[in-house]
Amino acid sequence: MFALLLAVGAGTYALVLPSPADQTEITLGTGKPSQGPTRGTSGYTYQRLTEPDRTEITDSSGEPVATMTDGARTVQIYGPLRTFEEPRFTAAKVETNVWVRLAPQAWRAGAEQEQWFIDWLEGVRNDRSPDVLAIAFEYVDGAPAKKDNQGQQYSGDASFGPPDPLDPDGRQERSDFYDYLQMPWTFPDGKNEMPEPERELALDCSGYLRMVYGHRLGFPLLGTNNPGDGLPRRAYAMAEVGPGVALTRNTGQRARGIDRLLPGDLLFFNAQPVPSRQIDHSGIYLGLDDSGHHRFISSRSQTDGPTMGDLSGEPILDGMGYWPDRWRAARRI
To answer: What is the pLDDT of residue 38?
Structure first.
């Protein structure tokens, strides 16, 4: 087995390349088959499943290749194992062989026969450039700054926002990706925004998702919270009218359907002291940690930025605790 460890400030990102004998058994989520498997000319087998409606691909040896969900661009590709951890803030580690990519267009049943998908899958299976999960960890505490050819910093340790004068232990919201970048931005729905200097290198919870999926990976972004072809600004709007597929909807109670989740899914919470129906926090699902808990990463006021750590409550969805009680909805975009 060959392991490449990259230190990222207080955290560590590990890319592990296993030998064939070290490959682990993978569960591709749950759901009922909606039809029998079909075999394509490439040697892949395509299985249709429900809850949510999706297509799962396996290769000629039965190993998982990819999962595509109807109406969503997010695709889970199965490749080398990686380990994500933040030892300064939690002993938990997330080891996964899921690489989360964005397809050029939303999936629909039968698209495996279309040339765009055949070409895209062929290229992406061996792509080891940063995916959704790796990019998410480029903004945790201590992550090194990365700059483009013009000297513009596009990643590195992110704050949540400036100190909140009404809460001595908290940080202000409203820090979007253009604040982090300190770049004026015009959105396709007509909204024009100017960055606030005090929010440089800051991302609130939904701004963090917009940075990862939108600015870095090219998913369309909206300047408002109205329905449209893109990811809205606020967490509540992402959950209610956002693009893609609602995996579990907000009923005002703790969300159900945890077995539907796959790495890269967006999660939505009510983070108030007394739980309610309101959604005011969002994060990215990472998968199972080494204790078997469903763990997520998010940008939080109390921790002043993105983390998978336990400082403001263990960020898991199962069991009892602050975040499990406040989980309200999930979406795959």
So the answer is: 65
Residue 138: partners with Cβ closer than 8 Å, 6 or more residues away: 8, 130, 146, 155, 156
Question: What letters, b where the CB count within 10 A reaches 16 and e where it falls short, cover 73-105?
Answer: bbbbbbbebbbbbbeebbebbbbbbbbbbbbee
19 in Cβ contact with 3 (< 8 Å): no
Distance CA 80, CA 19 (A): 9
Q: What is the end-to-end Cα distance of the chain in Å, rounded?
A: 34
Tokens matching residue 253: 């109670």
Q: Which of 27-36, 70-79, 197-206 has the lowest mean pLDDT?
A: 27-36
What 39-48 contacts at long range (C-beta under 8 Å, 24+ apart), as own/partner pairs, is 40/112, 40/113, 42/118, 44/112, 46/112, 48/109
Q: In 113-251, which residue ranges form alpha helices assigned H by DSSP?
A: 115-124, 132-136, 177-181, 205-209, 235-241
Tokens 């087998």 belong to 45
Report residue 229 as tokens. Answer: 């072809």
- Bridge partners of 48, per DSSP, are 55
Residue 108 has a CB neighbour count (10 Å cut-off) of 13
Q: Which residues contact 45 (CB under 8 A, 6 or more apart)?
A: 37, 38, 39, 57, 58, 59, 60, 62
Q: Which residue do the tokens 């129906």 mark?
A: 277
Q: Classify residue 70 by its DSSP letter.
A: B
- Within 8 A by CB and 6+ apart from 320, the residues are none
pLDDT tens, position by position, 82-111: 999 999 999 999 999 999 999 999 999 999
Round to whole Å and give the CA distance between 231 and 233. 7
